[in-house]
Amino acid sequence: VQRIVVVGASLAGLRCTEALRAEGFGGEVVLVGEERHGPYNRPPLSKAVLAGAAGGLELETTGERAAEWRLGVPATEVSLAARRLQLADGGELGYDGLVVATGLRPRRLPLPGPRRGRHVVRTLDDARNLAAALRPGARVTVLGASFIACEIASVAVDAGCSVTIVAPEAEPMAAVLGAELGAALRRRHEARGVEFRLGTVASKCDGGETLRAVVLSDGTDLPTDLLVEAVGCTPAVDWLEDNGLDLSDGVLCDNRLRVQGHEDVVAAGDVARFPNPLIDDVPRRVEHWTMAVDTARQAALTLLGRTPGPAGFRPLPGFWSDQAGLRIQAFGSPALADAREVVAGDLDGDVAIACHRTGRLIGAVAIGRRRDLIGLRKRLLDERSPLATT
Ligand code: FAD
């Protein structure tokens, strides 16, 4: 392998480049990135950056990042058969190895009405735009009740805005945390001033050139100065089309992150869908910071022809979320649980929850209760008790 092209110059792309160098790859590495910024940390975007602070954006690096950088230039298409990548500036790059690390794009809702005053939070530019608009007294409507939606609502209410979360689900974050913890967190947000309109969706925006209100499906006219769409993301795979790949949800890979049918192409980070034997044999995408790091390293090893041990690549998923003055932490796959049990504390305070599927531990969630969470994490990693039977 002489030249490796990494498409997507963010966390997974950077960590993959570092791993290639750390493993002794001496050829050329070219990093192609759509954003004009070099790699930065995304988690602070819906937390400190929205609150007007700059801290935490810098990505620590091992210094093993010697590469040619092409920033502000998206890849537009690729021929995997010819091993040639097309760039938006008309340039073309041949490669011997290709890394797909293009992450996600925020979903936008096709709401009729004015476009001004509508925001998403995925990039640094998005977060800075919204931060500048979060003035005391502003009426902010957040569409979605995911982790990022709740983080944004939390910062906005702290900034003195009046904030309403609108979402079809019955409780925030319930798909991952369960309805009981979701309800407890809703009450904590409500105590800090966030309002919830659950079980409903936005049907249109109202106003002339400037946004005045969001009209909900239940007929409510919600006065709104700023609308934040936090309704999930779709994988950035358009540039990979017409190569016969399974792009139905990210890019389908094997357990080693090799894009199926192509020895010379790997994927990493939010865009990669792969089976993790620690959980089961179903390929899934995982949108967590630590998983981008783990998959990036494995993708680099695969490209260099190194195979994982007989147990395969078995990373433990894990994430955190800061909101309403709390840190929520989780390991494993709590979203797959069919039963949840409070093992320490209680739902309205610090709590540790074991998540089970078909009687086996599959995930752990905690607020505080660090020691209990570490105990659950250890049990999840215990080889003698695989996370799932099916
Ligand atoms: P990304 O960081 O999305 O990077 C992909 C890059 O590829 C982007 O720079 C994009 O512009 C570029 N790109 C896309 N298409 C092209 C193309 N055609 N050509 C060239 N470049 C392209 N995780 C946690 O565990 N905890 C948290 O608290 C947390 N908070 C988050 C808050 C926010 C607001 C966001 C957005 C994410 C958060 N995450 C969190 C998730 C975490 O940041 C992601 O898992 C991580 O950024 C994934 O890294 P990635 O490199 O795979 O993708």
From TrEMBL:
SUPFAM superfamilies registered for this protein in UniProt: FAD/NAD(P)-binding domain, FAD/NAD-linked reductases, dimerisation (C-terminal) domain
Keyword Flavoprotein tagged: yes
InterPro entries (alphabetical): FAD-oxidoreductase/Apoptosis, FAD/NAD-bd_sf, FAD/NAD-binding_dom, FAD/NAD-linked_Rdtase_dimer_sf, Reductase_C
Domain Reductase C-terminal: 319-386
Keywords (A to Z) from UniProt: FAD, Flavoprotein, Oxidoreductase
Annotated Pfam families: Pyr_redox_2, Reductase_C
GO terms for MF: oxidoreductase activity, acting on NAD(P)H
Gene Ontology CC annotations of this record: cytoplasm
Record domain FAD/NAD(P)-binding: where: 3-296
Superkingdom classification of source: Bacteria
Cofactors (names): FAD
Coiled coil feature spans: none
Entry-linked PANTHER family: APOPTOSIS-INDUCING FACTOR 1, RIESKE DOMAIN-CONTAINING PROTEIN-RELATED
Protein name, UniProt field: NAD(P)/FAD-dependent oxidoreductase
Species annotation: Amycolatopsis acidicola
